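User: My advisor, Dr. K., asked me to get a structural model of this assembly before our group meeting. I'm new to this, so sorry if the format is off. These are the inputs:
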Amino acid sequence: MSEWVVVGGAFGAAAVRVATPLLLAALGETVTERSGVINLGIEGAMLTGALAAAIGSTLGGPWVGVLAGAGAGLVVAAIFAAVAVGAGADQIIAGTAITLGAVGVTGGAYRQFYGPAGPGLSIPTLGAVEIPGLSAIPVLGPALFDHSLLTYAALLAVPIIWWLLFRTRWGLGLRAAGESAEGARVAGVRVSLTRAMATMLGGVLSGLAGASLVLAQVGTFAERMTAGRGFVALAIVVLGRWHPVGVLAAAALFGAATALQYVFQAMGLDLPYQMFLMFPYVLTLLALGGAVGRVRAPAGLGR
Amino acid sequence: MRRLPGASVLLVVLALGGGLLLLMAGLALAGYDAGRTMVALWQGSFGSWYSLTSATLPRAVPLILIGLGFSLAFRGGALNIGAEGQFYAGAIAATAVGGLVGGWPSSLAILAIVMVAAAAGTAWIVVPVWLRVRFGVLEVISTLLLNFVAEFLVSWMVQGPLQERTGIYPQSDPIAAAARLPMLPGTRLHIGILLALVLAGILWFVFARTWWGFRLLAVGTGPRAAEVSGRVDASRMVAVALLWSGAIAGLAGGIEVAGVSYALFQNLSPGYGFTAIAVALLARLHPAGVVATGILFGGLEVGAGAMQREAGVPAVVVYAVEAVVILVVLLADVGARRMGRGRVVPELASERAP
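Assistant: The format is fine. Below is the predicted structure of the whole assembly, which you can bring to the meeting.
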């Protein structure tokens, strides 16, 4: 019995740890896509944020790392916004190029800074902060209330983004820009400016996602370490139906599906471990088939 | 389909020059010998007959093939970002069959490999196509998710069912000699390059000269308009284009195994699926442009390998050069449109109303 309490707690904790960067990036991309911009460059923003966080933390401690990650995400998203929103170039092509460029730049900068051996485990990381009282609850305590501050920040960002999108004038204009640029313009919304701001907010959150990956999950940086997590965040936005609460649920689902491998291992299931690794992706695919039918993307997305 | 104008080729070359200059500046700042790096890049890619035929062109084959398949689907307005997964599906199938055809005549063995690889690539995209047609799930997302699944599948295969006989290394046994593609004597250039060129010719013909190609572009441009005015079943046409796109990516995986690696292992593809998208987009989905850009990017990437060996510069920085090339072309294109001179490069279907 007590063994299952431990497994349950470890499962929950792992699920939340996996979900945190995905939630951050997907929340940012939700805002971006609601304004009518699809940013495939968030994979690149996340990767750059991860490297900046590693370097920042090496130089000035984990909180400098967090700031550096957010700043790097902002810069990458600003470049994307200049090309795709400012100049009005094709968003898919621009996003692909930004991600390619980020792979190249981080790959070079990382060797330059850490040398061929890499940083190893020398990066100062963000410690877990136990919430007094709550963290003592069996299973739920270790699962939810014993994480880095970035996890709590990501959870807090859900209602904030919801409020921003659905309860502020800015959010109304932003959603209008996402449905019809022409209509929004007639109504007095500065469409390009709104979209650029939404894209850069998305970049900051993607950069934070990269920072949480390095500083709260993995503890080091490696070339191409985001390994497609930015793209997974794009899927989570769709699965979450472009809504912050839906995105939270979708990220939690993906995190839980990833963490299931610990439960399976504890059960002694004799399957190739790659099956467990595939599972979250297959589940997301199936969930998309079941969930997407009744919802549609912002009408002006990508234009 | 419009012709690929000389101006766009010139633009790509200029953009590449700009990208390389930026790289040299960055390298000089980082303390590398920029001149020596550029010489290594050139020598390793286009600077000699050997590097051209044995490094650049073999590397270009999968980029061209996948880029052609991507173009086919994207002309119909569908984004197949899952070429990496379909490539691996084709590679797995080719490896499995390649181990069984030892006693066959070589031409039959190669035909078998090529066919199963294409079939496996098609199979890998069937679910996304079905999800799109039946539930309206964006194929961008569904094909992307299957990339991850394919990578784990390869990892399992090379440690499980397809692992080499001794069971020590995470890779497959080499495929039978009969199943390997013939090569141009004295080089490592296999006949896959011919297949890529023929396919480019076929697609050029389909896009430019057939009713089907015209309707596909109509569907990509405006599915509603196409359906209303032309009695075109848009959803069906896109499905067919996506299936072909998967088949071609699978074929690329089979060709890579039969012509280059002769075995399956993890990271067989250094991101072909992703680079090929850039290749196709830069070529504005034009088959001849895909061939040219594929060779250019193939050369850049093998040249980067030489750069790493000769000058110690991490090869991965070449992706930054590719990014600069794409962004410069993209911005020049926007500039040309704004100045009202028409476009430097042919219009992309996705840029009009989807």
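One thing worth pointing out at the meeting: Chain B has 13 helices and no strands.

User: Perfect, thanks a lot.
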